[in-house]
């Protein structure tokens, strides 16, 4: 082997060549037949021949290359060289692929068959509006033609719930239409990152049309206005090219309402002076505002006081969005600002977080929220807990702070140059309208009520579903458990109305509740206290009425599943699986002429939310809360973990590649402090 | 060597391991001391020992791996494996680097020394406005402190000229301030690509603050309003946080005006119905408009006629911007549209290019413009030459087309859903104000006139310079040549006023002109025709007056250098080199008490524009015109060449990496059809 290297060198080849194993070995094959046995003599003859050949080329004595260091150098160079070649080949391959993606000829398609109904839809429905029965692209290809006569699944909204549904839905069973005013899905958990340029806006969005391609679906850019449940028509509105509103109907066989929520104003005055963080344009506006304030602070016409005000950033709301935004803002100001702006600005900047509860991240485990608060206090992010915003003025914010005793309140005014309002969600106008229309079936004023099969209460069974932030599930723990207890009582030969539960019985019932409704566990931690509280007559037992009251109370707490992406995602997946099952069951049901009754319950289980944990980014560290006291927090490694989770959760390969590119960009070039 | 492989395999290592040269060889070093002579016997002993060892590990006979195929397989796997390891190492290294870029601790800077004048600037100047003499960051670090007392170089504008100047300027000589309303440099030639999402907007811009970092400069986000040349103050305006205009002065020792130009309305009515393509917001608006039109076309409430109108895209202006935009638009519609939108749309789309001259790209070589036209006609881009836009209406465009005979004109109306106006440049308001102020020294109504040293005519020498689109260079060919001819005449003992030039003399003079003013060459091609034309008295000779007239005519043609990035770039570089020389010469001049006189001419040559060629992208092909008939056009390979040129021309590593990422993104995921 050492000999071989020498040959390579003496014949003018560099160490690089010597290390590519194929070259000298390939040569050797030319000299010798493949040996039949471990080839000691062959090798020997090679060893003898080679140096002769080389000596003919060069008369000089062979250099001594036995040095370990030199050999190591050769091998490293060889490895390096062949790897570079590999990477180079990758580049060439990519360019070849790239070249294949250009279609240099105009796509001449000739005539296209389009149904007349698609071009001139017939009018109808209660308001005699055009009805979108046939789509322009219903006949575009064989795949689409096949879907024409399938049941119509109409999905309102293009958020987490809809996309989870679309990604799990069997592509062959439904004629799918998505109606949404935005033609993209937004990866909301990363939105705070986009406000400061850690991620690009583009990397957080995926065109809806890309997503529906899988199910050969259709997209209509419009806003849902109303639903006529009896004639199964969704009324949608859109602005025509002249800016006038036009309305039309989209018919459905199955309707999924997943329109999300709006910002909760909490009745505070002056929210027009705030920024929100709900969609991609909000993120851009925030970015521009931050940079504008920085630029204004540099002008000689800006007074000291004015500069301090411009650089006072206030975040209202200590939930994940508010906390992550404050953290990202701090990163921007800490890592990138001082590189390019006068140092004075860094000293004048203040970030304030106003939280109404006594802790930030109050839905998380206490340890997590403590960690976040410590981190913020170290990073000089001013956390104001027990504070309620009273009014947002153009240049300041008024809030009342409750003292540690819980009684004394003081009203403070904080000058500010920027205010983010992220204090939870409220019901969208469309949902309010639906809710009013359904009357007594809908009693919740915050969200649309569904049963555990996610069917909208008050609408024909298996027609209309509601998922995500706009909906809430009535678990009916009480009803289920009461039935269970009643059966138990009858079995023991007792009259349930006269049932008296001792504490041990109550513990059994509670176990049962925890098993069926895992979400209820959190509310059944202190069984003794609950027992005491609801044992109104203090007789040491719960009677039937007291038990019902207790369970109802738990029920009420359970109905409000968290308004998170996670819940919407699980509900979307649940619906997709159910719709797939329903479609598979359809031929059988048809054969048996079954079209009424609780089909959903017949083919699929009820929806059950499984909390997989919460995470939050808090300024070069991250916190994770898996529930039940499982949680951890950490520095940079946790940030990488946090990113990995969202990376895998991301909607498409495209957004994943883009996010990775963005993170690399931030490392290489920092965040861009530009506004446009 | 074959032996070594066998060892590796028999001991359970895969072919992959066998190929990493260091592993088995390193092992060998353990058995033997480094041999003193070419180690034939040593190798032999090794060969003997090794199989024994292996046999001890496994009793089975050794497999026969002498097969060429098998060896090839091993080697390929080895190469592949080590390359993967290499790439993996790269990733690890990048992550380590990434981790090092987070500063997890708040930058606590303590007190910062800032001049009182920076916080409360004194007032003065003709309008008694605050004067920005000391900047907030003048004392931020040692480097910046050193610059405090250097001559103040103020640059108005952040375009090609300014950036070229900033990149070539010696960092130690001037206290540099850039004043521009946009805090980024925009790579204008790629703007058409950004309108359709081939490139991201971010990839075309570089923050001015990044660029001025090299020269430790300052940036003021404001708009230049006026200049007081006698007290050397630039009056700038900015909106304060309340939206009121505030004004202040920025003092200078040297002022460079590079504010660019505005769109030329050519007196056409209804331009509010057009889009422009001057800055990054224009590009975004165009992108959103295109997508909005596509979405509207899909609605059932849109009639056939309306759909055709919405999908009729009109480009006014057949220069590079117009042509490239039309080409990019065609790419978008051809490559990406049909994947996601109904096929019908592709059939209904029309792209029109309205050009007032008889060819598109009329500043390019005829062959190039012919190629572009052929390409467009194949791609069904409707090129309307000899057509002048009369009026742009909200939903249609009116234009008059001159027939092939050059006389008959017809007025046509074209329904359109989108109109881009890109018909050349006009003078910015600021320049008009300067021009009026300088009175008779400025006679050109289209641009600020400078001498060949790029000094603004009418201002104190070596104080004020103007470059880029906003300026024009008076070459004064006539003056120079007349002096030359006069000297020639005196030398020959003739009275120059009575000089008579025969055609051969004229040819000598023309040669002289071509030598001194390379740009004039294009206008001196048909010497005989020129001679004939200007020999008014038809006596076969040019007298002194006739010669002067001829040269003046050429002069006029030369003054208008093309309003291109290339020219601005060269002028910026020229100024940087001159400023560097002036700074180097300054101590000597000071010692000799020279402060008046033509310093510029004393230290540096006059500006000379060298045309390096023009390029344009025309839909999966590109054209190049190097001037003097050198040109070529081609398909995909030309596109790659076109990209390479702009890639190298790009302003920073950051924009280069971003552009490369964008091109890769387009190949992988297509263009994004989203609007926000």
From TrEMBL, chains A, B:
Annotated ranges, domain EF-hand? 522-557
Q: Name one GO cellular component term.
A: mitochondrial inner membrane
Membrane topology per record: Peripheral membrane protein
Single GO molecular function: NADH dehydrogenase activity
Sorted keywords for this record are: Calcium, FAD, Flavoprotein, Membrane, NAD, Oxidoreductase, Transit peptide, Transmembrane, Transmembrane helix
**Which residues lie within the region annotated Disordered?**
16-45
Transmembrane residue ranges: 77-97
InterPro entries associated with the record = EF-hand-dom_pair, EF_Hand_1_Ca_BS, EF_hand_dom, FAD/NAD-bd_sf, FAD/NAD-binding_dom, NDH-2, NDH2-like_C
Tell me which SUPFAM superfamilies the record gives: EF-hand (SSF47473), FAD/NAD(P)-binding domain (SSF51905)
Q: Which CDD domains match?
A: EFh (cd00051)
Which compartment or compartments is the protein found in? Mitochondrion inner membrane
Homology family: Belongs to the NADH dehydrogenase family.
Q: From the Swiss-Prot or TrEMBL record, give the protein name.
A: FAD/NAD(P)-binding domain-containing protein
Q: Which organism is it from?
A: Neurospora tetraspora
